[in-house]
From TrEMBL:
Keyword Cell membrane: no
Record protein name field: Glucose-6-phosphate 1-dehydrogenase
HAMAP family per the UniProt record, alphabetical: G6PD
Principal EC category: oxidoreductase
Pathway the protein contributes to: Carbohydrate degradation; pentose phosphate pathway; D-ribulose 5-phosphate from D-glucose 6-phosphate (oxidative stage): step 1/3
Lineage: Bacteria, Bacillati, Bacillota, Bacilli, Lactobacillales
MF term (GO), any: glucose-6-phosphate dehydrogenase activity
Protein family: Belongs to the glucose-6-phosphate dehydrogenase family.
Record-level GO BP terms: glucose metabolic process; pentose-phosphate shunt, oxidative branch
Active site: 241 (proton acceptor)
Gene this chain is encoded by: zwf
KW Transit peptide (keyword) present: no
EC number in record: 1.1.1.49
Length: 482
């Protein structure tokens, strides 16, 4: 593998994301030789850490995520890490950061290449981007920026942030990360759709009745109540992960597999995204909030959550497009906290057509993303000793060995940043459409709040509020996974 020379600057280097995801992922890339002799990382955060302390943290992070570690490699890897105590709002600190980056550039011969990673609270993204520009932190080689979610909290703030970032970075150098796009089964959607005529030929609005995307979490908000109050399920999960999954399911076939063609196909689809009316939102969207139990808090009792909070911890809704193979086909989605089990899955429900055998079972294609990786297709066959049709599943469950080979989403996506492949990152044109849709729902819900309509309450560890069973367009539709 090619050794890519680069200095990477991580804003938020003492945070949870850096520790649990970025350092272990970088170690794996280091072991594979993608980054090796000519790379260094500057981790910045407010705490007064030393280089040595940071290196200890990096080592701990690798040990916590790897069952076996080559200690010599790890020590050598950690020696490439440097710590810079830094307050992102302080101009002078950017000077120090710039000087350190230049010094490391010389020491590691990294050819003036820089990757900036924004791994801190989103309210700082704009400030950091502005300082990178004003204090001239970009260098003479490539300059790429990785931006964590959420990218804005509505279209207006996302536009403002985008303006701040594009002052220093071209669109092609901005990597808006959505770790769902690094998941194996999400990356499997296009190959599954496009490479098998049995599937490819039915992937259209003539044969598909609806699609159902479920991203269910078993956990509640835990210690993140304060953040969640500013977000809610719609912004936290739908605006990014659910929309990206839906886009892959509904986009037209790209002309080839280059990043450019894939983003063009996505854009073609998204330009036809239907923005639902107030009436449609009332009929096809449900928001909910989890209640407590004998042993758990309800959402409104969680720390840092308002006692009369209207923030939704569950949302179900519908997305439709005017163009693409699924033009007009309902794509339903659901996501929530404190649901029955952690399960991310997609159910593609085929239309039921009349036939000589009378009633046959509905046929579905199901992709399970997490926690196991599985694809199954339901088929109909004859009952053995009586008349009638029985249902069977054709299933492919990834073996443990295969699952072990799958890199973590962050490793995959960081690798893509290093090799400059933006296929699995969100482009601005996509994001704009997603926010437009989300803003419309938020606006209607805001009106509902003012009229005294509250989110539906739901019991913990079930499948969300009962009202979510009534969002369908026709009475014959229902959640396949219930
Ligand atoms: P965190 O609170 O654990 O870490 C925040 C970091 O920012 C810390 O290093 C802190 O010292 C630093 N910081 C805060 N204020 C600062 C200031 N004024 N100047 C300099 N540094 C300052 O947050 P996190 O969980 O690591 O999340 C970081 C980003 O990653 C967020 O955008 C989050 O949405 C995103 N993200 C996190 C995860 C995860 O698993 N933690 C997953 C997906 C996305």
């Amino acid at each position: 593998m090619k050794n890519i020379p680069v200095i990477m600057i991580i804003f938020g280097g003492s945070g949870d994301l850096a520790h649990r995801k970025l350092y272990p992922a970088l170690f794996n890339l280091y072991e594979q030789g993608l980054i090796h002799d000519n790379f260094a990382v500057i981790a910045t955060a407010r705490r007064p850490w030393s280089h040595e302390y940071l290196r200890g943290q990096v080592s701990d992070a690798v040990h916590e995520t790897h069952s076996e570690v080559n200690e010599n490699n790890l020590a050598e890897f950690a020696s490439h890490f440097y710590y810079q105590s830094h307050d992102v709002t302080n101009v002078e600190h950017y000077e120090t950061l710039k000087n350190l980056a230049q010094e490391l550039d010389d020491r590691y011969s990294s050819q003036g290449n820089r990757i900036f990673y924004m791994a801190m609270a989103p309210r700082f993204f704009g400030t950091i981007a502005e300082h990178i520009n004003d204090q001239h932190l970009t260098s003479t080689g490539f300059n790429r920026i990785v931006v964590e979610k959420p990218f804005g909290r509505d279209l207006t703030s996302a536009e403002e942030l985008n303006k701040q970032i594009t002052a220093s970075f071209a669109e092609d150098d901005i990597f808006r990360i959505d770790h769902y796009l690094g998941k194996e089964m999400v990356q499997n959607i296009l190959p599954l759709r496009l490479t098998n005529p049995l599937i490819k030929n039915v992937w259209n609005n003539e044969n598909i009745k609806n699609i159902q995307v479920t991203l269910a979490e078993r956990l509640g908000v835990e210690a993140r109540g304060g953040y969640y109050e500013t977000s809610g399920a719609l912004r936290d999960m739908v605006q990014n992960h659910i929309f990206q999954i839906i886009t892959l399911l509904a986009m037209p076939e790209p002309k080839d597999l280059t990043s450019k063609s894939i983003h063009e196909a996505k854009q073609e689809l998204l330009s036809s995204l239907v923005i639902p009316s107030e009436k449609e939102i009332a009929a096809h969207f449900v928001r909910g909030q989890y209640l407590g139990s004998d042993v758990t808090f309800g959402y409104r009792q969680e720390p840092n959550v308002a006692a009369d909070s209207q923030t939704e911890t569950f949302v179900a809704g519908e997305v439709k497009f005017k163009k693409g193979p699924l033009a007009g086909t309902p794509i339903y989605f659901r996501t929530g906290k404190e649901m029955r089990e952690k399960k991310n899955r997609i159910d593609i429900v085929l239309k039921h057509k009349s036939n000589q055998y009378g009633r046959a079972h509905s046929n579905n294609i199901t992709i399970i993303i997490d926690p196991q990786m599985q694809i199954f297709i339901t088929i109909n066959g004859k009952k053995i000793n009586e008349s009638g049709i029985r249902r069977e599943d054709l299933s492919y469950l990834f073996s443990q060995e295969e699952q072990n080979q799958v890199p973590d989403g962050y490793e995959r996506l960081l690798h893509d940043v290093f090799i400059n492949d933006s296929t699995n990152f969100t482009h601005w044109s996509e994001l704009k459409n997603y926010w437009h849709f989300i803003d419309q729902i938020e606006e209607v819900w805001q009106k509902e709040n003012e009229q005294g309509h509250e989110p539906e309450q739901y019991l913990p560890y079930r499948m969300g509020p009962k009202a979510a069973n009534k969002i369908f367009e026709t009475p014959t539709e229902r959640w396949i996974y219930d």
